[in-house]
Amino acid sequence: MIDYIESGCYEYETAMRYIDEQRYNEALALLDQCLCHERRNSAILYARAVTNLALGSYRKAACDLMKTIVLDPEFLHAYKHLSFVQFMLGKDDSAMKTIEKGLRIDPHYAALYCIMGDAYLDQGELDKAKEAFDKALALEPDNAEPHSKIAMYYVAKGDMKSLKLEYEMLKTLDAALAEQIGALFFDIP
């Protein structure tokens, strides 16, 4: 389930359930209705952004995420998703600025370090990627996301021994993800 803040719109709760059920088009219709009544509600804008993101409508998601941040400058999840969308749209400089803004609000927000590391991996800057992933791991050692990110770093480096260690760790943190890694890299069914 995605983290949301509250809204007074009746359809909002149903839309959140639809998002959890991956009924994105139905959720989007309800969120649009909510925004007719509450145009400046950051919770609704954020939910619509995440829904558009799930539907692959990155530009629409980016617009709603920027509005969310204007309305609620402390809403870290919006920074995380906006930086991701900006990277997806090839706006690397903007994405790094968004990450930096988010980290100024909370330098302990591991998810932003994960996105930063992904960006560095994509750019072939493996040392910087590892530094970002290591920071995320230090902040949230029991969270599967930083472990999965560092696993991809090990793939990029061709370090199968370290990948195997992360695979073993992920078996307890996220069995489904560990299974995917095992099937891809270790011939484990």
- Tell me the quaternary state: single chain
**Low-confidence blocks of residues:** 1-5
What's the end-to-end separation, in Å? 28 Å
Fraction of residues in helix: over 70%
What's the structural domain tally?
2
Number of strands: 0
- Examine the secondary-structure arrangement and name the CATH architecture of the largest domain: Alpha Horseshoe
Total of helices: 11
Sheet-strand content, in percent, reads: under 5%
CATH class of the largest domain: Mainly Alpha
The ordered H/E elements are: HHHHHHHHHHH
From the spread of the alpha carbons, the general shape counts as: globular
Sheet having the most strands:
none
Structural class designation: mainly alpha
Which fold name fills CATH's third level, the topology of the largest domain? Serine Threonine Protein Phosphatase 5, Tetratricopeptide repeat
Please state the average pLDDT score: 92
CATH superfamily of the largest domain: Tetratricopeptide repeat domain
Radius of gyration: 18 Å
